[in-house]
Design brief:
With about 350 residues, this protein is mostly beta strands. Helices cover about 0% and strands about 55% of the residues.
Length: about 350
Amino acid sequence: MGRRRAPELYRAPFPLYALQVDPSTGLLIAAGGGGAAKTGIKNGVHFLQLERINGRLSASLLHSHDTETRATMNLALAGDILAAGQDAHCQLLRFQAHQQKGNKAEKAGSKEQGPRQRKGAAPAEKKCGVETQHEGLELRVENLQAVQTDFSSDPLQKVVCFNHDNTLLATGGTDGYVRVWKVPSLEKVLEFKAHEGEIEDLALGPDGKLVTVGRDLKASVWQKNQLVTQLQWQENGPTFSSTPYRYQACRFGQVPDQPAGLRLFTVQIPHKRLRQPPPCYLTAWDGSNFLPLRTKSCGHEVISCLNVSESGTFLGLGTVTGSVAIYIAFSLQGVFLCGSCSCCVSGLLL
């Protein structure tokens, strides 16, 4: 697998932590920021329009949504609603994009610059939201409900995801609790202690099962607040007596050509950093009985994030050193590796 350098698509004026793509509009949504520290680094959610120019993909800034003193660290998308993890809270945003009719004047406002920003890209503050108009496209963003989702001594929401029909969302953070909320009211419907310490990731399956992975080296499968089973990776795979591993990420994926088929994918990384780091591992599990199907080493760079393509065909891995790799989901065979940036890959889309 040869390493190559990926072309730059977009450079934000703040650190990026989360990405989503809206399938209905094709908008790329990027979020992050500098947090509450007074460093001059802004916090925001950027809505980018993707275009192909002279055969190359390009992104232009369509709308910048200011999140004030809160950096968005994690993001989930359900239709026209975004769930943004900001410090210890989850903030819901609604965005609406539609084609303009006639020649409307563009509105003045934000002057925040990206690598390519359309002329006059300027949101105007309104009572119930922020609106940006461009030739041919109009985007409106409004804040909905917000709720505190983590209650540790140093609270932080680390992950958020919607269920299959977008009626519920689940959150996890540094206090080890899973909390499930109605959408869009954010009324809490479930709360339970899933891990001793931080929750690193969680995934909701179409059958209502929830998988959580935590800093306590455990990966657990839940039906509501009842423990169904715990994943047994080191008991069934490579073992290193002096090197404990922990689960870093988990994602469900469809089985191509099997409408009812389901796979779970996890990443295991060494629990402690060593001078000569052992390899990280990628594992596929049966989505019904949660037994391991196959495990493959995915290199010595520490994995930071995992994603699965909508079809279930490909897996994407990002590392703390900025590399991105693509694997075939069925065989776990690597097909692509590139150095995407010089820092940790926080978000990855396929």
